[in-house]
Amino acid sequence: MLLMKETKIKEGIFIIDCTSLKVCENVRINKHKTFVKYANRGKNGKGYWYGFKLCLIIDIYGNIVSFKLTYASEHDLMIGKKLVKDLKGLLIADKGFIDKKWSKKLLEKSLILLTPPRKNMKKIATQFQLKVLRLRQKIEGVLSTLKRFYNLETTLHRSVGGYINHVLLVLLSYQVKKIYF
Predict the structure, then answer these.
(1) Which of 60, 103, 113, 137 is the most buried (most CB within 10 A)?
(2) Tens digit of pLDDT for each residue in 37-74?
(3) 9 neighbors 54 (Cβ within 8 angstroms)
(4) CATH code assigned at 109
């Protein structure tokens, strides 16, 4: 697949995060007809939305390694479990991916999961861990770029196929620009 052409390396430092993709504003949910069979409500730190969720894994250079478009109500951890199958190295994630059992399974597969501690956790982070966790800002920048400059999140689609094509073209155009410019 052309989208993953330059990122065949599955060893290194990777960053994972999920973002919301609204298909309509909250006040129009009851009138929305295009995605009524596919979209649903989701919730994150910014509130509720109606649409889908995009989960993205990038390397430290900002190249897309893996992605998945899912229902808005699916938990980040469940999506992440499906995306990290072939990766080895270090995986940096946010607090939504904290799970002891999954972390142990990843460690057996030579993938170390590094997340910031929650407020109720008694975990002391080393200086190295704190510096590595700052790399997580890179995926926030990538997701922000995809939404602002590539118009990833839009409410103008009239068909499900057109919406999926739009998401794929946005990711492909971002990846091509990263490779050639």
Answers:
(1) 113
(2) 888 888 888 889 888 999 999 999 999 999 999 999 99
(3) no
(4) 3.30.420.10
